[in-house]
């Protein structure tokens, strides 16, 4: 049965939200660590389930589970630090430049129950215990996860382990819940007690859900990561300096996890006459890898066929693609090339993401301005990669890349997103719906909202805004009298 009763789930989440508001940061941080420790303790069981349901390799899954646990521990540190609360205190000032100023204090507070649509290609890092869940919990919100149909047993077991760990560490019942089914997820997205949602998946599915969130009687923020071609640009000097390393890095980035990564490079722009055909063909010779599920495999095979049938495309590494008796797809990397003039002739044939192990090299004539190509063909991307050598002036390209992507990287490949405080995993539409990031500590900002208190007595203020600051969080204080000197530094 696809549609589950959702009112009890939403009401439990709402009750948990009220209780979480009174939980001290130290308790919330300890609960995140307990969640991480529980995942680690059950690693053998969870990885076995994930291997069976997704077809991903054991080494990849163990690494991903470790990443997920580290991410939870990172957010525990974020909670204890408290900077994400952005506390601002304006002292009362009878001599304020615009007239008497009241005491005004503001800080970020939890947004309320968050609905997280789990992703299929990262059954740990972007699923039940993944980045969106971790960020929402760190912000002090309960989370309802809509399980991905590609790994239902893993989702259920992860939720069971996580809920027990969180509640055992002192968080209220209902802090983490799981629902299943497309209709249930849509109904939950429409429920008035849900205050924000997150999603990682296809452009079509994400846009559909974003429109539902926006069409609610009370619209809510919907943070969707939808798709990216992650273009790569390589200068002639870079290819001359390290052509073999470029070829092997490209093949590894395209073929890893059967290309089922949101940061897989789909289009690579490099000079015509690069001389890398043989090196790329050799580097792409790998063992076949199962795709996540028959639906993903079918979409990849159809899109791959359309790309290879386009005018001017030549194969460097043909790759392989087959389906077994269970309709599961088994693939190896495909890398093709075409001239820029052929790409320009029908760009719509190549500017749709192909989710799987395929990349297209676009061979450009001497003097091609890569910055112009970015502006001409791309809107919003998760990443843009720049391969250069000493002496190359790529300043225009880098400025263009920053306009179009959330992360600009040099002399490397976009797969393998680092879980660090500074990471930006998001970009302009259609990479994401509302910007922000789903990796790194800034991800918490999506699930809080600012509240200001004016002339409030100390005992009525949230702890973070009080003069005694019992939580020990950073407070930005504007003292009385400072408005008289505003602008002086700019005149100096």
Topology:
Layout: H1 7-20, H2 25-41, H3 43-54, H4 58-81, E1 87-90, E2 104-110, E3 114-117, H5 131-138, E4 143-146, H6 152-168, E5 176-179, H7 182-190, E6 196-200, H8 203-215, E7 222-225, E8 232-234, H9 236-255, E9 267-271, H10 277-283, E10 289-290, H11 294-308, E11 314-317, E12 321-323, E13 329-331, E14 334-339, H12 340-345, E15 358-364, H13 370-377, E16 381-387, H14 395-404, E17 405-410, E18 448-454, E19 475-478, H15 488-491
Helix pairs in contact: 2-4, 2-6, 3-4, 3-6, 4-5, 13-14
Describe the fold and architecture.
It contains 15 helices and 19 strands. β8, α9 and β9 form a beta-alpha-beta unit. The protein is an alpha/beta fold. Helix content is 37%, strand content 18%. α2 runs antiparallel to α4 and α3 packs across α4. It has 2 domains: 7-226 and 435-448, Aldehyde Dehydrogenase, Chain A, domain 1; 232-410, Aldehyde Dehydrogenase, Chain A, domain 2. GO terms for molecular function: oxidoreductase activity. Residues 6-420 form the Aldehyde dehydrogenase domain. Keywords: Oxidoreductase. InterPro entries: Ald_DH/histidinol_DH (IPR016161), Ald_DH_N (IPR016162), Aldehyde_DH_dom (IPR015590), Aldehyde_DH_Superfamily (IPR050740).
